[in-house]
Amino acid sequence: MRARVRIASALILAGSAGVPPGLAAPGTAAPQPPIQAAPAPPAAPPPAGAAPTPPQMPAAGPVLEQPCGAQAARFESAKGFRMVIIRAGQIRTTNPLRPLTPELNEVLQVVLAGKAATAYGPDFTTLRRGSAPAAIEAMLGGPIRWEAALPTLPDPIAIVSEDGTPLAQLAFKACEPPPAVKAPKAEARKKAPARRPPPKAAEKTPPGFSLPQGAIAE
């Protein structure tokens, strides 16, 4: 009897120590195998004849727009020359030899290296650098009719010398607030030399008081 009890105890201990499910002791739950996740289905291939997806390109830079209106327009050359246009206008004059065909000149008030100047010419491809607007009016013989705001300017703008040699080709870069302009240096006034009083005239002997020579003895 004791031998049977020992055998039953041994079987129970063996089942709890990892006995296969078929040999487990009655009333003892068999260990369950771990549940494995189902593999993900493979991605479907693109249909035949479909174009491949293009790679994403970086975002483009800001779009340059005109006209600048109340702001100034900055133009630059490839060599770093900068011209800021703050006003645009025209001069219309009449040639006596051709009274029915008025002459038209474009005038731009610009800032170069912080100094005010002008650029003028019959069109924007042959602009010449000028001085103050009043000097351009006197030279061309007519007033400048300034526009209320900047119009759409050509891009690029060419600057030439007096003989027509190209000096710079300027491309539009951005609209910006009008720059500060340096005030012209006041010329030092030369002090006028102090006026000296004119020399006094030699005193003349009143008439009737002249003495003849030898009248007074030595």
What does this protein structure show overall?
The protein is mainly β. It has a domain at 72-176. Helix content is 11%, strand content 28%. The protein contains 2 helices and 8 strands. The chain has helices at 2-16, 133-140, and strands at 72-76, 82-95, 98-112, 115-121, 127-130, 145-146, 157-160, 166-176. A 7-stranded mixed barrel has the order 1-2-3-4-5-7-8. A hairpin with a 5-residue loop joins strand 4 and strand 5 (127-130). The longest helix is centred in the N-terminal third of the chain and has 15 residues, at 2-16. The N and C termini lie far apart (197 Å). 12% of the residues are buried.
- The chain-level structural class is mainly beta
Biggest β-sheet: count, sense, barrel?
7 strands, mixed, barrel
Tell me the Rg in angstroms. 52 Å
User: What is the straight-line distance between the termini?
Assistant: 197 Å
Weakly predicted, low-confidence segments: none
Strand order of the largest sheet: 1-2-3-4-5-7-8
Secondary-structure element series: HEEEEEHEEE
Q: How many strands appear in the DSSP assignment?
A: 8
- Level of helix content? 10-25%
Outline type? elongated
Strand content: 25-35%
Specify the number of helices: 2
- Mean pLDDT comes to 75
